[in-house]
Amino acid sequence: MPSSEPSSSRALFALTAMLWLGLFVAGVWLDGQASFPLWQLSVSTLTHLGALLVPLSFPSDGWRLATAWLLHIDALHLMTNLAWLSLLTWLWPNRCATLIPLGLGVLASGAATILLAPSHALLSAGGSGVLLTLFAMLSTGHVTMRTRTLSLVACALILSSGLWLPVDSAAHAGGLGAGLAWGLLQRRNRLTV
After folding, report:
1. Is the pLDDT of residue 54 over 80?
2. CA neighbours within 13 Å on the CB side: how many for 69?
3. Is 0.85 topped by the overall pTM?
4. Which of 5, 87, 106, 156 lies at a C-alpha separation of 20 to 30 Å from 129?
C-alpha cells in the first residue's frame, strides 16, 4: 500500500521521536526523584503520563493503549528505542504505508499486555512492541535482502533484551505477531494483484 507522499513516513518517525523525547523530559520535570544519569521515572509519574498498568483498574483505562508506547522508563530505555527508530527510518521504503502498521503495532502490543500479562501488577511503557511490529513487517515484506536481514536482526535483538532486562514480553509478542501477520498479508495481496 503506497503512501500518498514518500516523505510522510520519515515525518511520522521524526514526530514519534519528538514525542518520545518531549514526554520523557516532561516526566523528568514532573518526577521529583528522577536523577542523573538514568533519570528513572517513578511508577506514579509514568501512570500519570499514560503508561499502561495491568490488570486494568477500570475499563475506561483502555485509552492507555494509545499512550503507553510513547513513554519510557529511563534514559537508557529511551536512547535504545531512539536508536532502533533511527535504523527503522533508514530502512523504511519510501513507498511503504506507515500509519496502518504503526496503529496495528500500538493496538497489538497494548492488547497483548492486557490479555497475556501475568496476574500480578505490570507497568507497560515504551515503543519496543511497536518497533517490533514495524521491523517484523519489513522482514516479511517486498524489500531488499539487506532490509530484510537487518530487520530480522533488529527483531532478534529487541526480543533478546528480555533475557537480561525486565521487559513487557507480552507487548513484544503482540507487536511481533502483528507485524509478521501484516507483512505476510501485504506480501500475499501483492502477489495476487
Report:
1. yes
2. 29
3. yes
4. 5
